[in-house]
Amino acid sequence: MHIGLVGGVGVAATVVYYQRLTAAVAAMDGPPLDLTISHGDIQTLIRNVQAGAKRPQAEVFAAQVARLKAAGADVAAVTSLGGHFCFDELAAISPLPLISAVTPVDSALGARGIRRVGLLGTRVVMDSRLYGQLKATVPVVLDDEIEELGQTYQDIAVAGHCTTGQRSALVDAGQRMIDELGADAVLLAGTDLNLAFDDADPGYTVIDALDVHVDVLARLATGRLTLDAVAVGGGL
Q1: Which of 139, 141, 168, 169 is 20 to 30 A from 228, comparing alpha carbons?
Q2: Phi and psi of 5, rounded to 5°?
Q3: What CATH number is associated with residue 89?
């Protein structure tokens, strides 16, 4: 199956999707990965997220999906959990089936027996508790620090790299969700958070939503999973 990625939001996350998806497909010893990436503008996404402009951003994404379809892609995925704020609006106009990065996370957390999970990501992701889509586990956040942590994450996503201070702030926030809010694990609910956590050993369980999404995409790409078995939207 030809996978289409709506990328560029941000660039670092897109690169990690590319790296991990190619590695996952290679590990499955299946056919060569058929992949196309469409580059998007992170500043446009940020403005629309801040304005709650779901339909305008969905139209931007839909234009990217149309280009992916023209390139031969069978399905599309948005490489930004923050970008999923307009997933329903995009699904309504998408010319390709959309593979959500949010839906598989709940199943993955439930399968691991995670009862309470701390969330790190954009302000909207944290404030909405990952769009209210976690049913198998209870999401917790540092409510008084949502704005500050969300801005830190946004700065990392735009820059494409993480400073020592930013890394310390995020790792510490995760620890406090474990210690003070009773979280069993911390979910990296932002696809650029690997920049802060990949080389860190925080001393607590970290689950990267990006890895969950990549696993689904890799199994679709290699034929180990069919669209019938995945919750999808779109596909006009």
Answers
A1: 139
A2: -110, 130
A3: 3.40.50.1860
